[in-house]
Design a protein that fits this description.
heterodimer, A: about 725 residues, alpha+beta, 7-stranded mixed β-sheet, 26 strands, B: about 160 residues, 6 helices, about 40% helix, about 15% strand
Chain lengths: ~725, ~160
């Protein structure tokens, strides 16, 4: 089959999937909740087993966020079945629903909601089956601990009822859920199921996976973007101990060896033996924001509110900047693959087994049905890192050595140099206050590359950049509102009568970029919430009171009030000299979790070092399933964002990336982390899940910048708030 | 052959003397607790104890370990019977992804064996070499403090 017709078939296949998931025939039916809308068949989600257990299927992967435990809590609650008797199947293109990517704080709203309803429906079906056996009306029966009980004392286990329950049909909308007042698992303390093995050396990670006959691969990447292989003398490398195979496809180079250390030594020797062209020159880092600002942009007006403006306005303006940032997972990306006959199986810590299967099939020129991707947990994942590319590496190398499981792991410097970064961004804002100190006009623009170059087509996989016949790249696209990409959270939640927000989408990418925790929300919330403090200062208002004066959403007001009260915003003791306090708020994506944070920071005037001392955080992520899970994710979100905000930036010179290790790309270490980050969860039982993981990032950045302004009277609008920069600003 | 004493057991391994301990543990002995993170001694994910001292297993070659005792996460306890420090990490839910945990626990174990009652500042100083990207640091500090208490009371009980 030639290339064109194969593409045509793949293209039409993708279109078919879209048509299927859109299901116009369902338009007149009530929309099913969460991911049931895309995968309506009940047996896609649940299976009642003959042994009395229940198997639950999810398309969302454990990334270190604790999602598996939360999903099990949801299922256990609705089923009246202990967690120990529920098997949760992780994302697998052969077994589980296609829930796209595990991203965007969507796991609870999508998968949690689907499993909530599917397990509730299964419980109802088990009760119906028992009612038939007992000859009693279903509403007289109760369930507990995996059994159905009749008022006369008869009881029957789910296992005996399993065969009488037909799940090969669509889920019903409006299924009855348990009264939240009776919950005994949702919202109750349940320790994470995955933690004991991880603390004791049990095989827990993709990186720990072993298969019989497994061999080790390592890659030799070009020195930088655009560099191609000029020459290679591989004779010596091929004679190295343990060496099984040298793989070369254009400028794509890899070694496969029996032992892992042997593979690493061969990789190093091969890197020495390879000569490359210079590659694409990088932009000047010192002028990167001007460079970005000057690139052609496609403008979209995402908010346009008109009202008559009063006279006597005070207008102030500002511009904010954030540099390229790195995911920086502690464990570099890893994958394993085996080609058996014409069937390829890939084990991967990808965020999306289905989209990445499509991309790998595209890259390999294989039918997607012959490619199976299975999710295995990796090191903490905060967005589109090297995971998908490593899966593609494993797939390509499996083809080079069929029948053997090929394990490949990236080296630290490869992860740092080749992962897709979060884009550098610029925002510009101008607002007017009336004579009473109210904001009456708001003009805002955000300049950014895309925040999603996730695969789906093979050209976005890194190996495609280097193989002899690269696939044709797809142009980057912007994620549209209401979730948004670069313009995520670009629209302020505050009441402003006259407002215009423009998203300036920049197609040209100077560095490889894609999704990182919060996408553009981090920069937009940093900008908006920094500027709210600048406006409050101009209006002579307290920053918390100023925010409340512009907010009517009660849930927004609740988190703000709670965080301020817990911090002692109005009644607290004065801060020590050199300390400052700051406040910030956002509703993630303007449609997900509400979060407010009050922080105390210290500033060392001699070194310029800013340290987050403590934070009080209030979060409302809807119905809370795991309070400790929400606290853990939020504490982690605050600390990670503090690290981004205070010290992090990808660095480069004209020849390429220079932040290739932890010295070049430092992140917060123990000495610098806060004394305390206290998270207060506002539970909204019975309401939709809003997700948690990304809510803290933007508010944390702004709260720290606001606290720095409070401590020093310095308003710093460019990140990071690094010691060098703060020291220099203090010296002026 | 390379002789290694790992968790109290003697092993004879047919590997190159320059092989870093990390690969002997993971690839030869299938002890996966210690993790590859950077291979540069910058992140601590590979930390094990060598004669009681926290050591980067990604840097030290096996040839340098003759006569020394190596202790790994697996040598502390297992899922059925975790050590006091492992139990404290579980009790504090001191992990998000858990990739750094093995290194954190081994470095903390070395601290608690040398200094059973560390202050917060001493804990931070000792743990400074180990990176956590998920932001679980304060829970890790809490777990180390919790373990210090349980280990002290266990010692008391033995007396």
């Amino acid at each position: 089959m030639n290339q064109i017709s194969r593409r045509h078939i793949l293209g039409s296949g993708a279109a078919l999937i879209v048509a299927f998931t859109a299901r116009p025939s369902l338009a007149q039916e009530a929309k099913l909740p969460g991911s049931l809308a895309d995968t309506p068949m009940l047996n896609g989600w649940v299976r009642a087993d003959a042994d009395g257990g229940v198997t639950v299927f999810t398309g969302k992967g454990e990334l270190g966020q604790g999602i598996r435990t939360a999903l099990l809590q949801v299922a256990s609650e609705q089923l009246d079945l202990p967690i120990a008797r529920i098997t949760l199947i992780a994302p697998d293109t052969k077994l589980t629903p296609n829930e796209g990517y595990t991203s965007g704080s969507h796991s609870m709203p999508d998968s949690g909601t689907a499993i909530l309803n599917a397990t509730a429906e299964l419980r109802g079906l088990l009760v119906d089956a028992a009612a038939t056996k007992f000859g009693l009306p279903a509403d007289q029966l109760t369930t507990s601990n995996g059994t159905v009980q009749a008022p006369d004392g008869r009881r029957i286990g789910y296992g005996e009822l399993a065969s009488g329950v037909a799940l090969d049909r669509k889920a019903r909308p409006g299924v009855k859920l348990k009264d939240p007042a009776t919950h005994s698992v949702i919202g109750k303390p349940v320790p994470r199921i995955d933690i004991p093995a991880k603390m004791t050396g049990g095989a827990a990670f993709m990186q720990d996976m072993r298969l019989p006959g497994m061999v080790h691969a390592r890659l030799v990447r070009p020195p930088t973007y655009g560099a191609t292989l000029l020459s290679l003398d591989s004779t010596a490398v091929e004679a190295m101990p343990g060496m099984l195979k040298l793989v070369r496809d254009g400028s794509y180079l890899a070694v496969i060896a029996e032992g892992e250390w042997q593979a690493i030594q061969a990789m190093r020797a091969l890197a020495q033996a390879a000569k490359w062209t210079e590659g694409t020159p990088f932009p000047d880092q010192s002028k990167i924001f001007d460079t970005i600002r000057a690139l052609p942009a496609k403008d979209t007006v995402i908010l346009d509110k008109k009202a008559e403006l009063p006279a006597n306005l005070r207008t102030i303006s500002a511009s904010y900047r954030r540099p390229y940032g790195m995911h920086g997972s502690i464990g570099p990306s890893c994958a394993m693959a085996i080609l058996e006959g014409d069937a390829l199986t890939v084990w991967t810590h990808t965020q999306g087994v289905f989209p990445n299967r499509a991309a790998i099939a595209d890259l390999m020129k294989m039918p997607p049905a012959k490619v199976r991707l299975i999710h295995v947990e990796g090191s903490g994942c905060y967005g589109h890192n090297g995971a998908d590319d490593a899966a593609a590496d494993a797939a390509l190398l499996a083809r080079a050595m069929p029948g053997r499981p090929i394990r490949v792991q990236w080296m630290r410097e490869q992860e740092n140099a080749w992962e897709p970064y979060t884009p550098a961004m610029v925002t510009e804002v101008s607002a007017a206050l009336d004579s009473t100190g109210k904001i009456v006009d708001w003009q805002y623009g955000v300049w950014s590359n895309t925040h999603s170059n996730r695969p789906g087509n093979g050209a976005r996989l890194l190996p495609s950049w280097h193989i002899a016949e690269p696939l044709k790249p797809q142009p980057p696209t912007a994620i549209p509102q209401p979730e948004g990409g670069g313009d995520r959270n670009g629209i302020p939640l505050y009441n402003v009568p006259n407002a215009r927000v423009v998203s300036h989408f920049i197609a040209e990418e100077k560095l490889r970029v894609s999704a990182m925790r919060g996408l553009g929300a981090y920069t937009n919330v940093f900008s908006i919430e920094s500027f709210m403090d600048e406006l409050a200062l101009a209006a002579g208002a307290d920053p918390v009171a100023f925010r409340l004066a512009h907010l009517t959403d009660q849930r927004a007001r609740d988190v703000i009030t709670l965080a301020a009260d817990q911090f002692g915003w109005t009644k607290g003791a004065p801060l020590p000299t050199g300390h400052g306090r700051g406040f910030a708020f956002a509703r993630y994506k303007n449609l997900a979790a509400y979060l407010a944070i009050a922080v105390e920071i210290s500033v060392n005037r001699a070194t310029g070092a800013v340290r987050l001392v403590r934070a009080e955080v209030a979060i409302d992520s809807g119905q809370a399933v795991s309070f400790d899970g929400i606290r853990n994710q939020t504490q982690g979100g605050v600390i990670q964002a503090a690290s981004w905000t205070i010290i992090e930036q990808v660095t480069f010179d004209r020849a390429g990336i220079t932040s290739k290790d932890w010295r070049g790309y430092p992140i917060l270490r123990f000495a610098a982390v806060p004394d305390a980050v206290t998270v207060h969860v506002i539970d909204r039982p019975g309401t939709p899940f809003l997700g948690t993981g990304e809510a803290a990032a933007g508010p944390t950045a702004a709260a720290i910048a606001n606290a720095l302004a409070d401590a020093t009277k310095l308003r710093m609008r460019e990140l990071p708030l690094s010691p060098e920069r703060v020291k220099a600003a203090l010296a002026v | 052959m390379i002789a290694l004493n790992i968790n109290g057991h003697e092993h004879q391994l047919d590997i190159h003397p320059s092989t870093p301990l990390l690969y002997a543990l993971r690839d030869t002995l299938h002890l996966h607790g210690a993790k590859y993170g950077c291979g540069l001694g910058q992140c601590g994910a590979c930390t094990v104890m060598v004669d009681g001292r926290a050591t980067y297993s990604c840097l030290i070659p096996v040839a340098a370990l003759a006569g020394l005792k190596v202790r790994t996460l697996e040598g502390l306890g297992d899922e059925a019977k975790p050590s006091p420090l492992q139990q404290a990490f579980i009790d504090e839910q001191a992990a998000q992804c858990g990739y750094c945990s093995a290194g954190m626990i081994m470095r903390a174990q070395a601290l608690l064996e040398a200094n059973p009652t560390p202050t917060d500042a001493e804990i931070r100083t000792q743990m400074q070499t180990n990176l956590c990207r998920c932001g679980t640091h304060m829970r890790i500090i809490a777990a180390i403090k919790r373990a210090a208490v349980t280990m002290a009371s266990l010692k008391e009980a033995v007396r």
